[in-house]
Design a protein that fits this description.
The radius of gyration is 15 Å and the shape is globular. Helix 3 packs antiparallel against helix 4 and helix 6 runs antiparallel to helix 7. It has one domain. The protein contains seven helices and two strands, in the order αββαααααα. The protein is mainly α.
Length: about 170
């Protein structure tokens, strides 16, 4: 992360947190699809962000959301896991030509199919962990899986819409 893109990254980080805490917190579709736009704060960091920095930032973002949601660590656990898995997913989805380390991770720079695959995988993992920790039982397996799939689609669509309005 160079000093030139540090300020925009910090502002984007704050944007996703404020968006989640004050606006999309109440955004629920049909009591099944919940929006967790704050995952974009970790998913859209530059490629060259170290795994250690990702894990620390993921934990801090999750902890801040936990404080406002009163969820006692569920968001922190889910965010820490996707922060840890992010470099592996990026490597898994690496195109043959590789990545330019200076590229920003965005819809415009990476393309629609890659961006949907990348976000879909990590958002699904986040929601799976979050909703299973919230349910704390396998008795509600069908209901939890329905919430995971619906929320993954909803959150991915919200991140796509945000990306469409980014100037870059």
């Amino acid at each position: 992360m160079t000093p030139n893109n540090l300020i925009p990254q910090i502002l984007a980080f704050i944007f996703y947190l404020v968006l989640q805490i004050f606006f999309v917190r109440q955004l629920v579709l049909f009591d099944y699809a919940f929006c967790f736009a704050y995952v974009g704060s970790i998913l859209l960091l530059p490629f060259d962000t170290s795994r250690t920095r990702l894990i620390i930032l993921g934990f801090l973002v999750g902890l801040i959301v936990d404080i406002f949601y009163n969820t006692i660590g569920a968001n922190a656990a889910a965010m820490t896991l996707i922060a840890y898995l992010r470099p592996s997913v990026i490597t898994l989805l690496m195109p043959q030509r590789g990545y330019d380390e200076r590229d920003t991770l965005s819809l415009k720079s990476m393309g629609f199919p890659w961006f949907i695959s990348y976000c879909g995988i990590l958002i699904f993992v986040h929601h799976l962990v979050l909703f299973f920790l919230e349910a704390s039982s396998l008795n509600l397996l069908g209901f939890v899986l329905l919430k995971v799939v619906a929320s993954t689609i909803f959150t991915t669509l919200v991140l796509l819409i945000i990306q469409l309005f980014r100037k870059e």
